[in-house]
Structures
1.
Amino acid sequence: NGKPIATPKRTTDILHKYGFSFKKSLGQNFIIDVNILQNIIREAGISETSGVIEVGPGIGALTEQLANAADKVVAYEVDSRLLPILDDTLHNCGNVQVVHQDILEADVKAMMNVCFDANQSIHVVANLPYYITTPILMKLLREELPVSSFTVMIQKEVAQRMAAQPNSKQYGSLTIAVQYYTDAEVVMSVPRSVFMPPPNVDSSVLKLTKKTEPPVEVDDEDYFFALVQACFAQRRKTLRNNLRRHFSEWADRDIITAVLDETGIDPVRRGESLTMEEFAGLANAFYRKFR
Ligand code: SAM
């Protein structure tokens, strides 16, 4: 099958052949180490029956390895300059379909209906463009796609926040948002030297495994997420203070204290000490009081 794309020599050759110059604004840092890619694919649990959705194939380094391991790969790439390159580098990979679209605007659910079998297990695997890591993952999670897992290379700090435990400085509203839908685990840290060009930040591989059921029962998801965000608005302030500020326009201070009392959560605690269950209890109590 020839040499993999993910080597310094082949990547440089491909870039020269097409006169390609990296766009920093699109988060273009390509992987030039095939071992890293194989480790990612192993962590993702890809088998020859899997369907894979990739975001940002670049020149196809990861796509090529995914095509060898999986049944089918659909890859979304926004940069039109990469399309002729991918046609060339992936010409032997008949099971890859490149979609020229901004992932944030894509109807992924509709694509999945067309491109994958109804009973096939589907995984998202990607070396994400770091400038939009959170919007991409939140979009894919909130759309509740029939996807089993997400295995993504992202900025280390963001991976730590998504996989954080209560009472740590990384724990916040992003943690709750991600862990509401998935079990999150940082599975690998990755040196800057495996990218061309090397990024200015450290990277980790995060694996998100879809929960079969929501971990808590919330009356209204948007209300729940907004309340969680409010509890972390000023991290150093107590729950009572953050919630007073959140509800200030239309709720009496005493009502805030009364609802907190009802839930049994100490109003002088900070958001970072609350578990998902406690946040759910809090959100439902305020929702029922005010709706
Ligand atoms: N997968 C390749 C690799 O690992 O070598 C490239 C990864 S690079 C970090 C991110 C890729 O995402 C680039 O190819 C970039 O053009 C693409 N990209 C950036 N923004 C995008 C968007 N909104 N939708 C789809 N692809 C995007």
2.
Amino acid sequence: MTGSLHQDSSTNFPSLQQIGDMAAAAGRLTAGYFRRDIRIDEKSGDLGLVTEADIASEKFLKNEIAENFPSHRVLGEESGWSNGGSNDLPEEGDIVWILDPIDGTTNFSKGNIFHCISVACGKMVNGKFECERAAVYQPATQDLYTAGRLQGAFINGQPMRVNAGQEARRWSVATGFSSNKGDSLHGVIRCIEEFQNKILGVRINGAAALDLALTARGIFNGFFESRLSAWDMAAGDLLIREAGGITLNYQGRPFDVLSDKHIVAGPAHVVSFMLETLTRLKSELKNTSWP
Ligand code: IPD
Ligand code: CA
Ligand code: CA
């Protein structure tokens, strides 16, 4: 696959085909470890699990980038910043990749098919990561989600749109617990209670990047979650926006992937509905550590 990658010299970003091929190839690699007896370690600091498949996937993606885009910076969940020769944050104009080698590692480690590979590539503009290309691949279904800034969002090459229809009582909205525990977990549970009482159903699937992709595809009407990291949201953020949705943080400001730890995503009216509830709960729970 390496030989088939050609750098797009006009933009220096990967084409949608390239980034999609990379995510799918990493997904096929992880599939070789799925439901097998593999090494699983606990990360220190209650940061969840890492398996040998996560490490192999990240190494594969980083090698592809180093070979085809040697000047680009990479932020990978398992190895942090690289390609810059230091752990410094990227500089203005740098082209940056943000990788989640397996999103949904707990699911993966249990043989649960709700997991994906998430790859984003963009540029540092005015101190922020501006995503240009995104790909999310679910190995179990072989579904490939791609998006290019100002190019649209696609599921297996076909255009996709967020699900803007239906009244609230017909909506299905996804969220997650992330690392919330104790009083911050109480905040998540209050959110679930509020939404579950008003909509068709809240879903907790355990892979934020895939939840965002499914929201961009219109399977979920919206997604919200706090205490996430850049690699959980970088690709999904562009998928949602290119599928006609919006992404905000819990303050209701435009989502910024390198600084925000929470995201509210979906069609604009679903996002306003979710934000209204989140804002009310933030005031109710202001003495807790949520969100
Ligand atoms: C996790 C998943 C999960 C979310 C966690 C993330 P990982 O990512 O996206 O849905 O609730 O907070 O850390 O660790 O499986 O890549
Ligand atoms: Ca993740
Ligand atoms: Ca991960």
